[in-house]
Amino acid sequence: MVDLRYSRQIMLEEIGEEGQKRLASSSVLIVGLGGLGSIVASYLNGAGIGRIGLVDNDKVSLSNLHRQILYTEAQVGLSKATCAAEFLSDRCRATRLTAYDESLQPANADKLVAEYDVVVDCTDNFFIRFLIDDTCRKLGKFWVYGAIGEFEGQVAIFDGRSDKRFTDLYPERDFLCSLPKATSGVVGPLPGVVGAIQSLETIKLIAGVEGALIGKLFTINLLTFETNLINF
Question: In total, how many domains does the chain have?
């Protein structure tokens, strides 16, 4: 018998009981537990993903709290990965959660990614995105890309078995990876919108719903509500 909590999702013809079973038997690695990762982890946990890995070596800070909904003021200074796992476990104990209080690096990428079906990139780091792309290509994994800044965001899905790569969107790899990390402004609801789209695309991908953004880049501007869908 399927858990009653998923009944409204199972009512959807595109998902149904079969799609819900696929979600329950799937595993997702979320890299980065900031604004995007908070939303993605919450929705995938709620959707019934069977196993979720949470990767982040950062600590909760006060400046995170206007957009990172997994954390509280009392957790400032604590591990994001640990705090996220505790919050999500209380919300849905059916999901198996693993907290990795570390960053994704060349030394651990193969091992971590190999254990999961899909990777969701919720970072703000070009080096890690290219590393995810390389690793998913090597292991034949799907990964869901998301990025935000100020009022704008973008989402795409890459199939590690295809020739369509992250470098098709961003060919200047060495230059981008050499840039110092910049701190830019971001309106709090933006990662909510973009993270929700990443979550939806991950659910569609796993449940077999048509129309996932494989080989497509979706962009949105929340000031103008202009959107674009670009094939690459």
Answer: 1
Task: Determine phi and psi for 131, rounding to 5 degrees.
Answer: -65, -45
DSSP class of residue 179 equals: S
Q: What's the CA gap between 82 and 59, in Å, rounded?
A: 10
Q: What's the pTM?
A: 0.95
| CATH code for the domain of 151 | 3.40.50.720
H helices of 92-185, in order, are: 109-114, 126-139, 166-169, 173-178
Other CB atoms within 10 A of residue 50 CB = 17
Give the number of other Cβ atoms within 10 Å of residue 96's Cβ: 12
pLDDT in tens, 113-166: 999 999 999 999 999 999 999 999 999 999 999 999 999 999 999 999 998 899
CB of 57 closer than 8 Å to CB of 103: yes
Long-range Cβ contacts of 6-15 (<8 Å, 24+ apart):
6/47, 6/48, 9/47, 9/48, 14/204, 14/207, 14/209, 14/210, 15/203, 15/207, 15/209
Domain coverage including residue 35: 4-231
DSSP classification of residue 100: E
Segment 172-228, tens digit of pLDDT = 888 888 887 767 788 889 999 999 999 999 999 999 999 999 999 999 999 999 999
